[in-house]
Amino acid sequence: MGPSKPIRNRLNPIGIWTDQHPGPIRVIAFGMLILCSFLFPGSAASQSPDRFFKDDPQKPWHITADEIRYNETDDLYIAEGNVVISKDEKRINADSVRFDHKAMKAHAFGHVVITTGEDLLSGSRVELDLKTETGTVHDGTLFLKENHFYIRGDKIQKTGEATYTAENASVSTCDGQIPAWKITGRNLQVTIEGYGTVSHAALWARKLPVLYTPYLVFPVKLKRQSGLLPPQLGISDRKGFEYNQPYFWAISESTDATFYLHHMQERGEKIGGEYRYVLRDLSKGTARFDFYDDRRIDDGTGESSRDWGYQDDAVLRPNSDRYWFRMKSDQKLPRDFTAKIDLDVVSDQDYLTEFKAGYTGFDETNAYFFDTFGRGLDDYNDPVRTNRLNLNRIWSNFSLNAETRWDDNVIYRRQKISPPPLQQLPFIGLDASKQPLGEGPFFYDLNTSYAYYYREEGAKGHRGDIYPRFYLPYKLKNYIALEPSLGLRATTWYTDHADTVARNQDRLDSRALYDLRLDLSSDLNKVFTVNLMDIDRIKHTLRPQVVYKYIPHIDQDRFPAYDAVDRIAEKNLLTYSLVNIFTSRSNKFTEPAQNDRDKQAGNLSPYLYHQFSRLKLQQSYDINKANDNEPEPFSPVSGEFDLVFSKYFSLKADAGWSQYESEFLTHNIAASFSDARGDRLFVEHRYAQALSETVYSDLRVNLVDGFSAYADYERNILDGRKIKSGIGVIYTAQCWSIDVRYTDEETDRKIEFIISLHGLGEVGTSVAGRTIETPFE
What is the C-alpha separation between 88 and 55, in angstroms, rounded? Predict the structure, then answer.
């Protein structure tokens, strides 16, 4: 080895772009980042460790060390003593780094740590061959912050373009040298975009092995790949042993599909499929379908209704051909129009109750649709399913909504024993929000609609409706607000000829109707100076309001009856209310950085305002009832009360009081208590006269060292019947938790045992009981 000479010392760090052999020095730092990407191009985390590798060649690297030397004879660069190589968020620390330019090999020794953002790769020694693009990390540990994921190995090697090996490897999401759980393997072999294998794989709980397999195969995919997904297994009285195996097909970057084979020992084989797409303009859609030939039917013979049907709807299910198709789609169209499709077609009224849980069940489908499209499905026990095609556009003051809607009544379609549903084929609505009418003092809003109503039996035909409303708001010295308004409604019906012959009426009907409204209100405010914790002011707003509504009586019996628009009842009603609102003001106790953000957002106020309480009382007086000497012209007095004084206490209540009966018709109250430890108590009481009275409560208490206990209880006080009770204990550690719970319902008892390994998912089991003929307390 020839003589070495120092290039520059630590006190004067330099950029990598230097006049003295800039290329090789740059390769030292660049090669270190390459090594991270070679060893860990993909993992269980959502972000690939390629972040260690990505580089902007236009930006220089910086290197500092106690001493940097260059050996001209061997073309060898040596940096020793507290070596730091950095650029942007990337940083390499080591005791020493050597780069052999002839052999294109780099070596880092002693406490090697490579960081990219909050992700970290460390080892005692790193070796890199830039020609073959292979390398080794000794005593290596990779930490990925986003998933809090650790991968460790005595020697982690990149052996080829996309192949890797590790000796005595382990993975975990737990901190510490002895993690609470980890999965270990003697020899790990990985092919990126292929599969990995581990020999002698074991799941450990600290120092204790709890599960073992001699050989484990797992997918190593950085991109979406086709393949089998984890199955669902179960056992039940209705279905027997169940095995539901999904297969995922990655069709393209914007589309995929999943197929399901659901084996049910007692019922047969159910086959299902799902197709999803997302386009560049964020248009998206999902369609799901499953079907099977049921071995069991509910035809009312023997115990078939009890064993294979549901007796709450008193409707049999004699069909064995069973299916469910559902779809939602949002499509962007030219000129800012949007089209939406909702489809929901099910074979029978029991299907969604039968398959409420699971991969293809109602709960999972409804939650997915709601999260993805912002709208869910009709309730699982509703026999009428909504299907529609909607086209809409929204302007600043107007909106257009066109829709074709088909309500599918499953019971009527199957058995013709319920009334036929009413369809809208189509509905078109054009609405205008409240806005000024020209340059004068008047305002207006507008609701217009056209619809064709169809059903197999009964009235069907066209209806057009236009309903503008005109307002004249007036304010007296900022104390009294007066707003009279006039609504003019014109409605026209054109009834199909076949129906008019049956009812001996004209095909064309029309109705002209007006209504009056007078709204009188005021806001009275008073500010009180207080000294309560950080609150210095409380504002009390008193808002009295009187509203008068008048609709004249007209004869509407000759008109078709499609919905509420066809029968508008007369009204001569006076409603008066009083609202109390309490708002607190407190000083902002924020960090300077938060104050800067507030200023940038235009929030220059140094105070925080919080509406912590609201009390509303309201009653109506029916003038028509009083003029006709009908009893009880006064409505019940209704009250609403909300109190959210702090994040630790809230109260919500409402009630209806009848002055004629001198008692409450309804009253409900719910209270929530919590503390800084996370303990929580929720209690709710609900009452409806002669109908129901229930109490519900749930409690959670944080005990010690990660242990929490919880319980819930619900009871029908009116008939002395317990509805549900449950109790459980949770232990939560940094990277795992265990939940043991017992639930006792009217028709079921269940014990559940669930272990969650954070980063890997949940492993658990449950023991369930069938309906008990004599419930016990």
Answer: 10
pLDDT-flagged residues of the chain (< 50): 1-55, 501, 590-591, 761-777
Tokens of 207: 């120092």
Q: pLDDT digits over 197-207, tens only?
A: 888 888 887 88
CA distances from 364 to 356, 361, 371 (A): 8, 6, 11
For residue 693, the Cα-to-chain-centroid distance in whole angstroms is 32
Residue whose pair of structure tokens reads 């749930």 in the numeric block:
698
Q: What is the pTM of this model?
A: 0.67
Query: How many Cβ atoms are within 10 Å of 151's Cβ, its own excluded?
Result: 23
Mean pLDDT, the chain, rounded, equals: 82
Token digits for 321?
Answer: 């051909």
pLDDT of residue 602: 57
Cα separation of 577 and 572, whole Å?
Answer: 17
Helices (H), 188-280: none
> 3-state DSSP call for residue 227?
strand
HSE of 6 in the Cβ direction (CA atoms, 13 Å)?
12
Q: Tens digits of per-residue pLDDT, 421-457?
A: 899 999 999 999 999 998 889 999 999 999 999 988 8
- Which DSSP helix (H) or strand (E) runs through 365? helix 362-373
SS (H, E, C) 560-591: CCCCHHHCCCCEEEEEEEEEEEEEEEEECCCC
Contact 697, 681 (CB under 8 A): yes
Q: What is the DSSP letter of 592?
A: H
